[in-house]
Every structure is written in structure tokens, then in C-alpha cells.
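Practice problem: predict the structure.
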Amino acid sequence: MTTAVFTRDTEARLAVARQVADAVLFEGYVLYPYRASAAKNRLRWQFGVLVPPAWCAAAGEHAAQHTECLMEPRHGAVLAVEVRFLHTQRRVVQRARADGTYETVRELHLDDRVLVPWDEGREEKVAFVLPVAEPGGDEVAFPFTRAAAEETEPVTDAGGRPVGRLVRRREEISGVVRVSSAELEGPYRTRRLRVVVENTSPWRPGAADDRDAALPYSLVASHTLLRLDAGGFLSMTDPPEWAGGAVAACRNLHTWPVLAGEPGRADLVLSSPIILEDHPAVAPESPGALYDATEIDEILALRTAALTDEEKRRARGTDARAAAVIELADTMPPEVLERLHGAVRSLREVTGPPDAQDGEQREGPGDGPGVFRPGTPWWDPGGDTAVDPARDHVTVDGRALRAGCRVVLRPRLRHTDAQDLFLSGRSALVEAVLHDVDGGVHIAVTVEDDPGADIRREQGRFLYFQPDEVEALEDA
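Answer:
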């Protein structure tokens, strides 16, 4: 095993995966209304927390993550591993005394913010590379340690005069990353990769210690990024049929690996403590991190902008990231806020050759009558190219009725819509013929003497009748 700086290509590829990994790293870091005093911000660090083994035994939480996935490396492939987590550091607020000493306080009021004690998350990572051929049946261990430290930051008022300081303390934590892989039997060169991230910090709980005391010795929001420079990984959520059994035999504890990066590429894996789908992505409309994925960005931005000045002062003093959210909401241009209102990503552009003549079925490239397009839901009208409401027809009394035909409405008594009684005997124009998934046929019409027919037609708001409820007119 070798420890090295990632190549430029590997670093660029991992940067793509980090866009989503950052959202995992800071999921729930500070929740709206972004104040330390809010009840929801008093119980923190819920995802990917690897506690010290001693606390694991006492509280039933886990000290390790276990990832297994399948890969198809080519000859000479190199695996890059990057384990990321937050190291909790306790921040204490102190006020300056006249004699030059400091006293610890619960609050320190400044013009633009109110500083309070808070647990901050310091980003950490463990990164290394190793040839895929090296981890065979034997496990390769990569131990790491982050030393205890104390840092002091002076606090000044608007005039630059010192009024206090922030003292940040971090405890020593240690851990190990274990990597191994094994060749699988079968027609393809496939290996099962195992990556175990374990907290080995030697902390021992005291009589009055609780989870809050164990957090400074924990790996918070822990997750793993994997990159294969030659070859690729197999999807664990949608594997090829031949690999289904091998995927089912993989053992994943407290984490789940998914393909990362752009769809169509398989060189990246994100093993996350949060359940994700393959190729997860941050919405392009998101203006920045809001740290509260249980809410909608638009709602959070509007709520944050509506906070009182005092609430914003306290949020700014809670954490630098909370202060950035306040600044983002206060300076967001109207066009950016409008973009958050919603987006429909299921719409697909369907193009094809122009029709040779009226009434001929339109088909996309490679489509045939009655052929469903791959990847299209069964209920999507665009999935079956043989279905076209504007051109389909239904036979009534020996006549073919399609869009543009005229009919007389004869509602049946089996229907409960009282308006049907007023439409009996009225003439109508057929707008479309629709087939449902159960084989039923529905005729969409507009009443000919309805003054609002043009508006109904423009909005697609039609009246619907079954074939035995209409009579074809002679000029049909």
C-alpha cells in the first residue's frame, strides 16, 4: 500500500462526487431557524456518527461502517480511497475583563451578532491510493490519528477594540480504514471490494458522561468516496442480471454505496450513511447550502429572510455557516428566488420524422407500433408510440370516430353526473380518443354551442363519454 497525493485526474473526478458528499457531510449541521437556542439544534449529529468503542458498548451505537460493493477493474487499475468526516470541536465564549483576563460567559453581545457556546464541525479526511491487485485475501489497514488541539480567536467590536475571545478545543481521535478485495467466480473479472471505517479512540466514559461527552471523540457524518482509474463499479441498486446474486451477498452496515458522478459513468462510488439513489446530484437551482434537507429551499429562503433582526443576530453568532445562510437569504436576487419555485425534470423532448399524411402514426427513431420506449413508466402516455389521442379512432355504429368528428351525446343512466341530463341530445365535437391502461376507451368532446369551448380546448378541459354514449352524425 502506498500513501500519495491524488493525480490530477483522480482529484478532478473526486471533486465531482464531493458536490453531493458535502451535502452528506453537513446534513442537519444547523437547522432553521439557525440558532443554538432552538430546540431542534440541541440534539445534533444524527448521521454517520462513529462513536468510541467504549460508548458503543454503553449506548448501543456503532463504532464502524462496513461497505461492500462490486468492481470490474482493468489491468493495472489503482483504487483511490477518501474517508471524510467531521471532528467536533467545542467552542467556549469568553469576555475580556478590565484587568486583561477573561471570564467564560453564556453570551457575548456584539452589534451584528450574539456569540454563544457551540459545537463546530471541522472537516477531516483520510486519503490514500493502492493498486487493486494488492488487496487480495489479506486486509490492508491504514490507521490515522487527529491530535488534540486548542485554538483561540480574538473578538473585537465594530471599532476594533478587543471585547473577548473564542476558545476552541478538540480532543484526540483515532481510527483505521481497512481495505480488502477478492476475486469472484464467474465469466467476468469481478471483485468484491470491502472498506471498513472504524473509530478506535481510547476514550472511557465516566459516571456522569453521556452521548454529548462522547461526541468530541467521534467521527461525525462519516462517509467514503472510491475512485477506480481503470474499469468501473457495478450498481448496487440496479445491477446487471448476472451479478444479482453477488450484489445480494454483499454486506453493508450503517452505510450504502451508490454510483456517483454523471449518469453513464461508473468510476466513482459514494458510500453514504444516508440512503441515496445512483448518480445523486444537487439541484442546479439551489443557491447554496441550507443544511436542512427536510425542507424545500424556497421555503427555507423565505422563512430565513423573514426572521427578525434579533433572530438574525443570534443566528450569525451561532456558527459561521449559519451566518452565511442569513447573508444568502438577505442578498438573494428576485430571479434566483423565483427559480426556486419549482422545476419539472420528468418532461422529455420527443422528436421524430414528420408524418407522411394525415392519420399516419407518428413514431420516434427505432420505435414501432405498440413498442414501449425503454425507461418509460407504464402509465406514461408517451411510453407507447402506438397511442396518440389526437389521431386514434374508435368505431361507433360502423363509423370511425376520431378528433374532428361530430357526434350527438346520449348519456347513459349508469352515470351519476347530474350535468349529463342537460347534455343529452346536444351536438359535440370530438377532440381526442383516449385508451386507458385497463383497455377502456374515452371520447373527449366539447359541446358545439358552448361559448367557452375555445377556452376548454386551449386548457385541455374536455367532457368525457364512452363509445355507447354518443351517436355519429351523418357528416362524420
